[in-house]
Amino acid sequence: MVKLNRIYTRTGDDGTTGLVTGARVSKASLRVEAYGAVDEANAAVGLAVLAAERDGGSGSPLAAVLRSVQNDLFDAGADLATPVAPGEKPDAALRITAGQTARLEALIDGHNAGLPALTSFILPGGSDASAHLHLARTVTRRAERLIVALRTAEPEATSREVLRYINRLSDLLFVLCRVANRDRGGDVLWEPGANRRPEK
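Given the sequence above, the corresponding structure tokens read:
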């Protein structure tokens, strides 16, 4: 169990931070950038939870899914903050599992089945919840890009499953954007070149 008695320690005043293993690394390292972006994604999902509750009430099924995702994102941050050790045994560290990724895939398939086919790309917006979900989706995509960069730099020390999970999560958030808009006028469609037409 995590227990935090003090908020500041002064140990990071030199620009370093501690990983789960106790190793000190630069706060500008790719690993810290990656789990920092996952933390940002979690905060954006938190805003989407509040918006979903405003749109659908405190018992919103959408909000329940997102709260579950928030818990997974803490797991993902812990995974990234713990470099994979050579010969690491299963369950030696908190890692994102294939089961967590598969759960996202089932959610994507289940929610997408009730949506109409897309005929255009969609613009972020529509309902309050959808706008917040689009923001969470884009932050999640940035986290994914940073995890890809980290895996390129430290392939043996970085979990492959955490990358798969974050990739699926951005897909789920896209589907949930559409779900949030389904009963509120539908998707806001992109009109290519709409503002290039000459004024009449």
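The beta strands are 16-18, 24-26. Try to locate this feature in the token string yourself.
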